[in-house]
Design a protein that fits this description.
The complex is a heterodimer of chains A (about 350) and B (about 400). With about 350 residues, chain A is of the alpha+beta class. Chain A contains seven helices and 20 strands. In chain B, helix 2 crosses helix 3, helix 5 runs antiparallel to helix 6 and helix 13 packs across helix 15. Classes of the chains: A alpha+beta (about 350), B mainly alpha (about 400).
Amino acid sequence: MRNFRAQQIWSLGFLLGVAIAPLGSAQVSVPKRVGNSVAGGAPYASTGIVETRFGQSYFRGSGAIARDSRLIFTAAHVGFDRGRWADEVAIALGWNGASDAPPSRYLSMRGYRFFSSYATHVAQYGSDSDEAFNTDFLVGFATQYLGNAVGVRAGGAGYLANASIQKFILGYPSERDFDGVNGYYYMHRTGPFSTPFTPLLDAYYDVQNVSTGSGNSGGPVFETSSGSAMLAGILVSGTDRSAGVYAIDPPAWDMSSNALSALNDVPPAPAPTRPSAPGSTPSAVSDSPPSSLTLNELTTLRETLVARMVQIRKMKNPQARVIQLRRTRTLLMRVNQQIQALS
Amino acid sequence: MNRASDSVRWKRLLLLLAVGVLVGWIFTLFLPEPDAAAKQVGQSTKDSPTDVSPSIQPGIGASTSNPASITPSPTHVDAILIARFEAAAAQFSRGIDRKDARALIADLADAVDAVDPTLAAQSLIAFLKTGRDAATGLGFRVAEGGTLSDAPSLRVATLDFLGRTGAPQAAEYAIEVMDATDVADEYSVALRNLAWGVEDNSEVGARFSDMLDRNDWLSEPTAGFMEAFDVAVAVGGPQMVRELSEVVLGESEIPTGDIPLLNQPAFIALDRLMMRDPDAVVAAFRGDPELLSWAPTQRASLLSRLDVRNKDQRILVENYLLSPSHRPGEMEYFQNIFPNVNGIDGYRMVTESAEIRNVSEIDDATRAVLVEWKSDTRFTSVRPILETITRRLNQNPSSQ
C-alpha cells in the first residue's frame, strides 16, 4: 500500500481536459471529474480541498464537513508533521477548477484533533503501515458555520463491507494513480461501486479494483443504503488498483464529540448505537464464556466473576476499572444466559 | 523376634511407598499438561527465593464443583491456565498469521478472565517466571482502558493480562520485571502495571526516568517504549517536564537525515502534560527560562497552550513574548497557533484525555488581553505578532 503522502502544492501553468480512463479499465473504478452543476449539491458541496500549512510548506488533501456544520473529517497524514502542529488547516468547499481556489475561498479551522497513537505508529511501523493507516484520522473544527454537514455512520465498516451497498468516494486527486492523468483541482468522484471493502486491521479496510490518487487522501467515502449519501469512511491509502479507507468507528466518533465538546463546553455525547448494516454480520464477540461447560462449572464461573467484579471495583485506575468491569459484566451476562438455558 | 518384626515392618513400608509412587505416577498420566506446567513452575521458583513451590489448583473448566475450592491462597496457581500459556508459546513459536495470533491472544484473555483475579495473577506470574516466550508477529497497540489490543510477544501479552487482573501482585511483580528485563515493551507494560497499582507516583516517576537511561532503547525505540511516555503525563510535575524536554532536546540534535523517532511521541506527551498540569510546566520554565530553547518550535508550541485567564500563565506568556532569546522562526510559529486548542485523542496506557472546553471563552479572553498588550509600550516590539494573533482569531469569530 502506498500512502498518499500529503504533497506540496505545485503551480499549474496550463489547463487540461476531462480525465479519461484508458481502454481496458472497465473493471477498475477510477476517479472522474464532477460537473459544476453537480458540485453545488449534497454531498459535493460539503466536500473540499484541505490545505495544511507547516511554515512555508503547503500540503494538500481532501475532506468533508461531517456530523456538524463546524467539523471537517479528513486523514491525519494530511495534517501531520513530526514534532509540530500545522500552522493552519483550511478547507475550500465545493471547489472545482483547474487551479487552486483563491485564499478567500479557504475557511480556516480553529483547531484540529488526531490520535496520539498515529505518531507512535508512524515512528515505529512507518507511515505506510497498517498500524498507521488504522489511526489515520483527523477532525478539524471551527467556531463558525462552515457549510452543510453530511451524516456520519459511526459504524462505517458494516456498510463498507457490504457487497449490496453502493459506495462512492469524493476528493481531489492531483493525479490519478491508475493512469497518471492530472486531476488539477477538480473535484472527482470514484464510483459508485458495490465491491465490498475487506478488513486489514480494525478500522483500516481496503477494496480492490477501485483506484483514486494522491491528493484524494482524506476524501469522504459515502455509502448510499438509505438513499442519501452517508459518510462511512475516509480515504487514506491506495494503489493503481486498490483503495484503503479508515472506516468511521467509535474512536473516530468520540474524536468528533471531543471537538464539539471543546466548542460547546459540554461533555462529549456518547456514540450512537451502531446500526447494523443491511445484510451485515455482527462483529465477533471475544468476551464469551468457555463453551461446553456443565451447569456446575458455569455456576462456579459465575461465582468467580462476581468475586472478580468486587476486586475490580477496588482498582485504582478509573480507565482500567471501567473497561474491566465492562468486560466482566459482559462475560457474567453470557454465563447467566447459559445457566438459564441449561436449567 | 525383634529383628524379624522390624524386617516385616520395613518390607511393608517399602511396599506402601511403592504403591504410593505407582498411584502417583498413574495420577500424573491423567493430568499430563498441568503436571508438566507445574514442573516448570516448580523449577522456575527454585530461582526465586521470594516464591514457594506452588500447589496445583484446578481452574475453571476442570471438574470443580465447589466454589470454595477455588479460593486462592498465596501459593496457589491454576495449572490449567499455565498450561494454556505454555501451549500458546509453542503455537506462537511454530509461527501463525496475525489473524490467528489475535484470536489466540483473545482466547488467552478469556481464559484469564474466567479465573479468580488473584489466582490468575499468581498463575500468570508463575508462567512469566518460567522465562518462556514467543513472538506473536503483532505490533504493540494500546486499546481502550490502557489495555493492549496487540502485543509483540507472549510475555508482553501476559504482563498485560496480569495488570488487567487488578490484583496487587501485578504492581509488585512489575518491579521485578523492570529490574530484570532487557525488553523495552515488557518494561513499558510493567511500568503501566505499577502506575495502575500504586497510589504514590514517586516510584513510577523514578522508574520512568530509569527507562530513559536505557540508551539501547532510546536508540531503537519500540512502540511500547514510546507509549510509555504516557506514564510521565500521569506522574506530572516539573521533573517529568524536564525528563520529556530532555528527550525532545536530544532528538533535536540528531543529524539531519536521521529520523528522530522519539520527537513526536515525546512532544505529544509533553503537550498533554501541559494540558493536564500547566502549573508543572510553568514551574519548570520558571526554574529554567531557557528550557527547550534549542527546540524552538516545540517550545513555542508548548507555550502556545498557556491560558491567559490564569494569572501565572499570563505572566509566562508575557515573559515569553518579551524574551530577547527567541530563535529564528519561533515567534512566527507561536503567532500562528496561540492560543492552541488542538487536541490529541485516542487510547493511552494510563491517562485519559485532558479536554479543552469552551474555545470561544478562551478566544474572547485572549482577544481582550491582546487589546491590553497592544496599548502597553512594553509590547511595542512584538506588536506585529500580536496583530497576527488578533487577525487569526478573528477568522474564527466567537460563536457566543
